[in-house]
Amino acid sequence: FMQGVHAGYKGDAFFTKILENPSHYPTFSIDEGVIYTNYVMGVRCLCIPRIPGLKGPRRLTELVIDYAHKMIGHLGSMRTAEYIRRWYWW
Questions:
Q1: Between 2.40.30, 1.25.40, 3.40.1130, 1.10.340, what CATH number should domain 2-89 receive?
Q2: CB–CB of 36/18 below 8 Å?
C-alpha cells in the first residue's frame, strides 16, 4: 500500500508540487518521501494520491475506505468517515 502511495505522488499534479517546493506548502510535511498534512493539534494525516489503477483496478482511496470499514468493525458510515478523516487526506 505505501509503495503505491509513494509512487502515486509522481502522477498527482498537486502532490508533485508539494514534493518540488515543500517550503511553499507549510501545512504539509514530508517524511521519507511520504506526504502528510498537518491537521488539528499537530496530528498528521497521510496524503493519498488520486491515481487510478495503482493497485490493480482499485484506487488507493477505495483501499483506504475498505480498510477503514473493516477496522471500525462495521459500525456504520459515520464512524468509518470519522476514522478516515482522522488518519487520511485526499
A1: 1.10.340
A2: no
